[in-house]
Every structure is written in structure tokens, then in C-alpha cells.
Specification:
This protein has a single domain, classed as Nuclear Transport Factor 2, Chain: A, CATH 3.10.450. It has three helices and six strands.
Length: 133
């Protein structure tokens, strides 16, 4: 099943890139987002929670892009390593870094995503060894 999970995550990025919107139909109705880059954010739950997370994210950045660099089958999880480029809304400071998201899939849909602002944290959360350290 893990190859199918990787393909689901790849498809979600491709659809977002094509439409400029999250692929809502690929999200489990009870999806949970945990953004480990936002202090004290708590979890965002359900489709409304995903919308709120994206609004919170957009409030910090005047523009941003996320380009996938690799998708890793981590058994029960999929890790997407991304190149994030953004400009601070208030500061106009440009940021470019490697972020990563750990995904969990249930019933053929994205059920959870844990967003990290670096690869090492995501790998640790997924139980993987990071060979780039």
C-alpha cells in the first residue's frame, strides 16, 4: 500500500500546482494538520482546519512557493521534502529553506500531515535516518 500512498501525495502536489488550490477531494474529512513551524499553534482539524491553517500560513507570507524535491516511502508514512521560498508579509525578508511534511493516509485519503521546517525533524518523526546530516 505504501507505493499507492506515495503516489497519492505526489498527485496532491501536482493538483495543487495545476489548480492553485489544495486538492480538497484527496483530504480525509477528519484530516489533522500539525504545523511544528508555528509555535503553540495546536492541531488544525477537518477541512475547515486545513483552510484555517492555510490562512494562518498566508498571513505570515506575502508570497510563497513549495517545490517538491523528493517523496520518500517511510512505511506507514510518506515524507515529502520541499524547497520553500517565501517573502515575509511585514518584513519583506526573503526566505529559502528545505522543509518537509510527514503524511499519514487512511481510506485512500490524506488523514494527517505534520509540517516541519527542516528535513531532519521530519525524518525523526517518521522514524527514518537522515543520511544528509
Amino acid at each position: 500500500m505504501s507505493r499507492e500512498n506515495v503516489e497519492l501525495i505526489e498527485r496532491s502536489f501536482a493538483e495543487w500546482d495545476l489548480n492553485g488550490e489544495p486538492p480538497w477531494h484527496l483530504l480525509h474529512p477528519d484530516v489533522v494538520v500539525a504545523d511544528h513551524d508555528i509555535l503553540d499553534a495546536g492541531d488544525y482539524r477537518g477541512i475547515a482546519g486545513v483552510r484555517r491553517w492555510l490562512e494562518d500560513w498566508s498571513a505570515a507570507w506575502s508570497d510563497f512557493t513549495m517545490e517538491p524535491e523528493e517523496f520518500i516511502d517511510a512505511g506507514e508514512h510518506v515524507v515529502a521534502v520541499l524547497r520553500m521560498k517565501a517573502t515575509g508579509r511585514g518584513s519583506s525578508v526573503s526566505v529559502e529553506r528545505q522543509d518537509a511534511i510527514v503524511y499519514a493516509v487512511a481510506d485512500g485519503k490524506i488523514a494527517r500531515l505534520d509540517y516541519f521546517n527542516n528535513r531532519a525533524q521530519a525524518f525523526a518523526a517518521a522514524g527514518l535516518a537522515d543520511d544528509t546530516e
